[in-house]
Amino acid sequence: MSTQPEKKSRFSRKPKDPDNPGRISQFKTLFQVSVKHNPKIPLWMAGAFLVVFLIFTFGLHLIFSSFIYTGILGVMFGLLAAVIVFGRLAERAAYGALEGQAGGTGAALQGLKRGWTYEQEPVAAEAGRARRMSELSNAAMVFRAVGKPGVVLIGEGPTGAARKLLESERKRVARVAGPEVPVHVLRVGSGDDTTKLGDLTKTMKKFDAKLTDAEVQAVTKRLRALGAAKPPIPKGMDPRNAPRMDRKALRGR
Q1: For residue 123, which of 170, 55, 68 has the smallest C-alpha distance?
Q2: Which segments carry the region annotation Disordered (predicted)?
Q3: What are the tens digits of pLDDT across the range 97-137?
Q4: Largest CA distance in the chain
Q5: Consecutive H or E run containing 170
Q6: Which SS3 state, helix, strand or coil, does residue 11 take?
Q7: Which residues contact 90 (CB under 8 A, 6 or more apart)?
Q8: In 207-246, where does DSSP find H-type helix?
């Protein structure tokens, strides 16, 4: 008795890939995580929906004289407003969750758009006396990004160690990049001379453009060829494991 392989129906659903959740699942997870950090997010979303709904429903009624038509428009634009508000608040919540975490700068740099290249791991690091994973918050790190404004070095960690690493890396980059390439130095934190993690990418975008796209690529290649001068971090400590934000999910896509 011959057995033939069972034919698959063209209408049969593909099995779900556990490593690649759908957009709805990602949005749901992002919503739950964001609400944990900011329980008022549902109230802000409801308020945005209600305000826009009322404006479109009763405001446009004076023009179209149809509550059905304006009501449909009100629902559509109200939902859009709620999603936009959620995206903004979820982004703030994500940055808030990264505050004070080792490697948080690398995750925040993902907010940079086209025209920037950045390293996902620190180009310089000093763990100090840290010997366990729980002590990684005491490690000083320097991250690097290159764009039209030049080279931007961002330090995180203890003030003294971070400043020392930043100055050492600044001199090192200046020797390789050349005097015509600006080198900006920032330090993330909550002090007077620091930049908040949530404002990091905004601050970087405010720098004046000095380089062309071709020059940005050339400088990036030079610096990557230079390699990284980072002291060893205790075993088991990997700043690349810092949580990363899903930019598409934040935009509701």
Answers
A1: 170
A2: 1-21, 228-253
A3: 666 666 778 777 887 888 898 887 888 887 655 444 445 56
A4: 82
A5: helix 159-177
A6: coil
A7: 30, 31, 34, 41, 250
A8: 213-226
Question: Two tokens at 87?
Answer: 């995206």
Tokens of 190: 């909550």
Phi-psi region of 216 (alpha: psi -120 to 50; beta: other; left: phi over 0): alpha
pLDDT of amino acid 144 = 92
pLDDT for 243 equals 47
pLDDT digits (tens, 9 = 90+) for 137-156: 667 889 999 999 999 999 88
Residue tagged 């979820």 (tokens): 90
- Assigned token pair, 128: 């100090």
d(CA 162, CA 164): 5
Phi, psi of 140 (to 5 degrees): -95, 135
Helix (H) or strand (E) holding 155: strand 150-156
Contact 183, 211 (CB under 8 A): no
The model's pLDDT over 36-52, given as tens digits with 9 standing for 90+, comes to 777 888 899 999 999 99
* Parallel, antiparallel or unpaired: strands 183-187 and 150-156: parallel
